[in-house]
């Protein structure tokens, strides 16, 4: 069975994790600090704040911005449900906007279509690693005095106008889940441009503690902490950070390989009439965290039929990006582009160790299933 994803993990990560365990420092500590500096440098950001997941990073971002009950936050429905859930965690109402049919991302037009006097923020998602048009979204948010949070969960290594995808972001959030190009098992990061905000985020992730546990343990004197605001337990461990440092060093090779394989997919899939697929927008490059295809209009089956057909041919694929507004947890609204993409798209296998033979098998299985 060809898997949809296979993390690129090996002895280096195992040794890094073991070294953290042997050190006796397994909670948030010096390796977390090292990982924050290394990742924020890679992302072109001033500061990094490591947390337990991208979901907790999104929640902290909205909490930092002062989002509260009665507020509305514009989000794409065409995203993993955590994007919308984060607004609810802050007590706000997520308002779903439609997306561009080619990139799967929010646009100024889709945002402005759902704005109300209660809108205070927008969460823009670089969906599947495809960058949204940062300048365009920043302009529309500035026009309406809205905060813009980058949900960069899938986008480590993607670029926007020649720079790291969220380098200009005031607030960006990242995921290190095993389906991402850089994994720490679970884990996330906020990258921020303001040092005061970074300092507050570090307090908030650790119960609102004025002095971190790591600082107290390494101090030569007595340091007593205080709790000036209610915080959360959103910390990353040193074991995770140790793995993350190894993974970060591998990331350029991972992106190069994925883009090479994606280019080969483009050539092979061109032989199937009516099929379209994810590619670079004109203003940036994608890391191909997810390689999705949109089924031909002539195909009368569903994406589930395709998944079942691929499975019988030894290929494990996934449905396209979900539509959160169609889930029972949320109310249905009219989002025609989102509904078309989520019902007619399939995510194909793509991973660093993938062979050309495996890729040939995937393409042949997809063509046979569609026929």
Protein described:
This protein has helices at 11-23, 30-43, 54-64, 82-89, 108-112, 134-143, 195-204, 213-218, 238-269, 303-312, 336-344, 356-370, and strands at 47-51, 72-76, 93-97, 119-125, 147-151, 159-160, 163-164, 171-175, 188-192, 276-277, 284-285, 291-294, 318-319, 345-348. The protein has 371 residues and is an alpha/beta fold. The chain has two domains: 11-248, Type I PLP-dependent aspartate aminotransferase-like (Major domain) (Aspartate Aminotransferase, domain 2), CATH 3.40.640.10; 251-370, Aspartate Aminotransferase, domain 1 (Alpha-Beta Complex). Strands 1-9-8-5-4-2-3 form a seven-stranded mixed beta sheet, sandwiched between helices. Strands 10-12-14-13 form a four-stranded antiparallel beta sheet. The longest helix is centred in the last third of the chain and has 32 residues, at 238-269. The protein is globular and about 70 Å long. The mean pLDDT is 96. Its cofactor is pyridoxal 5'-phosphate.
What attributes characterize this protein structure?
single chain, 371 residues, Aspartate Aminotransferase, domain 2, Aspartate Aminotransferase, domain 1, 2 domains, 7-stranded mixed β-sheet, 4-stranded antiparallel β-sheet, 12 helices, 14 strands, 15% strand, transferase, pyridoxal phosphate
């Amino acid at each position: 069975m060809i898997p949809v994803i296979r993390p690129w993990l090996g002895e280096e990560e195992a040794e890094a994790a073991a070294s953290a365990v042997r050190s006796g420092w397994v909670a948030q500590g010096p390796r977390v600090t090292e990982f924050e500096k290394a990742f924020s440098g890679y992302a072109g950001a001033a500061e990094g704040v490591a947390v337990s997941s991208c979901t907790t990073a999104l929640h902290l971002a909205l909490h930092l911005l002062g989002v509260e009950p009665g507020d509305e936050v514009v989000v794409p429905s065409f995203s993993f449900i955590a994007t919308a859930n984060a607004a609810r965690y802050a007590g706000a109402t997520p308002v779903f906007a439609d997306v561009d049919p080619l990139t799967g991302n929010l646009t100024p037009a889709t945002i402005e279509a759902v704005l109300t006097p209660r809108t205070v923020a927008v969460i823009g998602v670089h969906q599947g690693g495809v960058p949204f048009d940062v300048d365009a979204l920043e302009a529309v948010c500035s026009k309406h005095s809205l905060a813009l949070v980058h949900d960069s969960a899938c986008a480590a290594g993607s670029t926007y106008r020649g720079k790291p995808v969220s380098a200009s972001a005031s607030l960006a959030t990242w995921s290190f889940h095993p389906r991402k190009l850089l994994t720490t098992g679970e884990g996330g990061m906020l990258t921020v441009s303001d040092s005061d905000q970074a300092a507050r985020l570090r307090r908030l992730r650790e119960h609102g503690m004025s002095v971190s546990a790591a600082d107290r343990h390494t101090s030569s004197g007595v340091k007593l902490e205080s709790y000036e605001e209610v915080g959360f337990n959103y910390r990353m461990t040193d074991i995770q950070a140790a793995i993350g440092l190894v993974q970060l060093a591998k990331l350029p090779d991972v992106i190069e390989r994925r883009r090479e394989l994606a280019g080969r997919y483009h050539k092979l899939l061109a032989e199937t009439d009516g099929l379209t697929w994810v590619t670079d927008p004109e203003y940036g490059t994608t890391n191909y965290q997810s390689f999705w295809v949109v089924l031909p209009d002539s195909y009368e089956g569903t994406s589930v039929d395709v998944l079942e057909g691929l499975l019988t041919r030894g290929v494990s694929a996934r449905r396209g990006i979900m539509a959160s507004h169609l889930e029972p947890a949320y109310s249905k609204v009219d989002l025609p582009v989102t509904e078309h993409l989520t019902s007619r798209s399939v995510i194909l296998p793509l991973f660093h160790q993938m062979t050309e033979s495996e890729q040939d098998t995937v393409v042949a299985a997809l063509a046979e299933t569609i026929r």
